[in-house]
Every structure is written in C-alpha cells, then in structure tokens.
Amino acid sequence: GGLIGWVLTRKDMPAWYERLKKPSWCPSRKIFPVAWTVLYTGMGYASYLIWNDLGGCNSKAIIPLGLYGAQLALNWAWPPFFFGVHNLKMALVDILCLDGLVIGTMCSWYRINKAATLLMVPYLGWLAMATCLTIRIWKDNPEPRAAKAE
C-alpha cells in the first residue's frame, strides 16, 4: 500500500514539496523511505503476532485486526491527499483519524500480545511527529482562496 501511494504521487512530489514552507525540524526527504521501511517491518511483524495468537482470521480477530486494517487504509490514503491532490486539510483530517485508530489498535492488542503492542510504539512516535509536521505545514501554507462570485 505504501509503495503504491509512493508510485502514484512521486512525480509531483519533489517540486511541490520543496516549495512548501516547512519548519526547521522537518526531517530530510531521504529519511522518510528508511523510516517507513523500518516502521512497516515492525508493524507487519506485530500484526503477524496478533494474527498468530488469535489463531488466524476468526471472530476473535475481527476487532484487533480490523482496527489494524483500518489504520493501514488511512496510512495509505495520506500520501495521495498530501502529495497527490495537495489537499493539506484532508491530509490533516486523515492523519488525526489515523492517530486515533493506531491508539485504538494498540489498546486492543495490549491484552493479546504486549510485544506486538510495543512494536507499534515507534510507529506511533513517528506519527506524532508527522501529525505535528502536517499541522505546521497546513498552517504555514494556506490554500489559495477562490475568487468571490459577483
């Protein structure tokens, strides 16, 4: 999913992204692929641990793995909102919902497998930074107002 989002948005990304006003603490573009590779590896293994502990896809797995799937969908939706259509407001709404779903996922996993929950902590930390960055970019790069009809 992350790879598909990157392929769909990579053409416009460098020029448009470079023109945005970003805070001094914004990570370099080179860090993002490395960070996401590490994060997706941890997330994938964590979801496997939950799937394995619950005995695969069954009624006990609906909520824990359903929350995980929902947060993945929002994770994969963020790049097209932000980089694809340059809709900073929708990207912000998406990432705020994503934050909530990740916390919900972790809460639902805690009783099942604490190690899986801990594997999600770096992801939540990265999302906290990404959320703050999205807020800052949204605030510092207002969308052009449409001309008023006379």
What is the compact description of this entry?
This protein is an all-alpha fold and 150 residues long.
Quote the CATH topology. Ferritin
Rg, please? 17 Å
Order of helices and strands, N to C?
HHHHHHH
Query: How many domains make up the 3D coordinates?
Result: 1
In CATH terms, what is the architecture? Up-down Bundle
For this structure, what is the CATH class? Mainly Alpha
- In terms of DSSP E residues, the strand content is under 5%
Strand pairing plus helix content: what structural class?
mainly alpha
Stretches where pLDDT is under 50 for at least 5 consecutive residues are none
Number of strands: 0
What is the 3D form? elongated
Subcellular location: Membrane
Keywords: Membrane, Transmembrane, Transmembrane helix
Family: Belongs to the TspO/BZRP family.
Organism: Crypturellus soui
Write a structural description.
With 150 residues, this protein is mostly helical. The chain has a single domain (28-140), classed as Ferritin, CATH 1.20.1260. Helix content is 73%, strand content 0%. α1 packs parallel to α4 (62-84), α4 runs antiparallel to α5 and α5 (88-110) packs antiparallel against α7. The model has no long low-confidence stretch (mean pLDDT 90).
Features:
single chain; 150 residues; mainly alpha; Ferritin
SSE topology sketch:
Layout: H1 2-9, H2 13-19, H3 31-53, H4 62-84, H5 88-110, H6 114-119, H7 121-140
Helix pairs in contact: 1-4, 4-5, 5-7
Keywords: Membrane, Transmembrane, Transmembrane helix
Membrane topology: Multi-pass membrane protein
Transmembrane segments: 31-50, 62-78, 90-112, 118-138
